[in-house]
Design goal:
A 7-stranded mixed β-sheet has the order 3-4-5-6-2-1-7. It has a 6-stranded mixed β-sheet with strand order 9-10-8-11-12-13, sandwiched between helices. The chain has 15 helices and 13 strands. The protein is of the alpha/beta class.
């Protein structure tokens, strides 16, 4: 993998806002000269080129006028023992936006270039310090919202997923090498036994499928699940949102159609980030504002990971409810029988077979815990352990699915008696798909797209 152009980049690497410490990071061949040009020791003297991996207290100056910008600790990391595997200098000052901007401006005047989003981590990847899966995990660690999401991202950053992917890929590459050797040197190399080829390919596919087993749960922990509360007007959808949030967020009245827009709030359920979405009641309406709300409701329902279809249990299932349920057939859904404090006339036998039903009272909180358990089990599954999740990134999931499908085609071709050169075509597709995950066969366009998601300074 080629290195990036040999220039020196700089950026504020800590979040904007007031804080105890803020850091301006430099990386590249002139990181140390630029850093030393801005830095003086506490007694005002210049700092000679320091020993690698050392920190020095002093002050950072504006070279244009010699004025002190702030107190500072300069830390020097000599390549390749740094985050980017390049020379890196970090200037740690007080966490003031103004101070950090002035330090960054001074560094840019001394010849550094403002870093692009994610460029420090991109350099770490291109310089071989991180593979692509580990580099992507960096942003997931930064953005993790729950302990489980953080644990999964940390495992990826430490290389556990990469090792699993490489093990599968090495099996495929080994098969390809043996097939190609027998084709190129038929007099010297015995063809690979079909039974052995099939067994090894099926074992590789089984490992890929094992990683994929919990990939959907991993995605939900990483991105959060969209849980949409839907139903006809005045069944207590807004009350249900308030109950889940344990606060009064949505306006609740006895007037049907009170909610005319989408209301979205975040909460965590057993380490799973949720976006709970209250919606306008689904019904035909002549009111132009309510019609807009109904259209937005249908869009949210279409994109939902889980639908909480709410009915008024005190009156039972209505014809309108039945029509809406038919529209939602095949979707992941829980029927919530709300208002049981007023009576429970909901006949579960009238609902689609296999649909989970939870009777509750959003007003009193009765049976709310049962709904929360049903939400978690529907999204994650009662048997899924967070410790088993290694795949959470949709890109990784797609590449694994492509690899598993290609291996399956190769196995079917081998069983059908096709020549091993034909079998090798799909094995190569699978190996390349896995290489896309770790970055061994990735395109420049994919790399640019991935690192554009990062913040400046990381």
């Amino acid at each position: 993998m080629a290195l990036l152009e040999p220039d020196t980049i700089a950026a504020i690497s800590t979040p904007l806002g007031e804080g105890g410490i803020g850091i301006v990071r430099l990386s590249g061949p002139r990181a140390l000269p630029v850093g030393l040009a801005l830095f003086r020791r506490a007694d005002g003297s210049a700092l000679p080129p320091p020993a690698a991996q050392t920190a020095h207290y002093g002050r950072v100056y504006n070279p244009l006028n010699g004025e002190t910008i702030d107190e500072c600790v300069l830390t020097w990391f000599h390549a390749p023992h740094s985050y980017t595997a390049e020379d890196v200098v970090e200037l740690a000052c007080h966490g003031s936006n103004l101070v950090l901007r002035r330090v960054l401006e001074a560094a840019l005047r001394e010849g550094a270039r403002l870093a692009e989003p994610g460029e420090f981590t991109q350099r770490a990847f291109l310089n071989g310090r991180l593979d692509l899966a580990r580099a992507e995990a960096v942003i997931d660690v930064i953005r993790a919202r729950t302990d489980v999401a953080l644990r999964v991202a940390t495992q990826q950053m430490e290389g556990q997923l990469s090792q699993e992917i490489r093990t599968i890929r090495e099996t495929l590459i080994g098969l390809l090498a043996e097939i190609e050797a027998a084709i190129d040197f038929p007099d010297d190399v015995e063809p690979l036994a079909t039974e052995g080829l099939i067994a090894r390919a099926e074992a590789a596919r089984a490992e890929a499928l094992l990683l994929l087993r919990h990939a959907e749960a991993g995605r939900l922990y990483r991105e959060g699940a969209a849980v949409v509360i839907a139903g006809r007007p005045n069944v207590g959808k807004s009350s249900l949102l308030n109950a889940l949030l344990r606060e009064s967020r949505a306006i609740v009245t006895e007037i049907p159609g009170t909610t005319r827009d989408v209301i979205e709030e975040s909460l965590h359920l057993r380490g799973l980030p949720l976006r709970a979405i209250d919606t306008a009641g689904l019904r035909a309406t002549a009111h132009p504002v309510e019609r807009i709300g109904v259209r937005r409701t249908r869009a949210e329902v279409e994109a939902a990971d889980l639908i909480l279809f709410t009915v008024d249990a005190s009156v039972g299932l209505t014809p309108e409810d039945s029509v809406l349920l038919a529209e939602l057939a095949g979707r992941r859904m829980i029927v919530v029988g709300n208002k049981i404090d007023l009576g429970d006339r909901l006949d579960a036998a009238a609902l689609p077979v296999g649909t989970p039903v939870v009777p509750l009272s959003a007003l009193t909180g009765a049976n709310l815990a049962a709904l929360e358990a049903a939400i978690y089990d529907s999204l994650i599954g009662a048997e899924t352990s967070a410790a088993e999740i290694l795949v959470s990134n949709t890109r990784h999931r797609r590449q694994l699915e492509e690899a598993a499908a290609a291996i399956e085609r190769a196995v079917e071709a081998a069983k059908a008696g096709f020549e091993q050169a034909v079998v090798a075509v799909d094995l190569k597709i699978a190996a390349e798909a896995l290489g896309e995950i770790t970055g061994e066969t990735v395109t420049e366009a994919t790399i640019s797209q991935i690192f554009a998601r990062f913040c400046v300074g990381k």
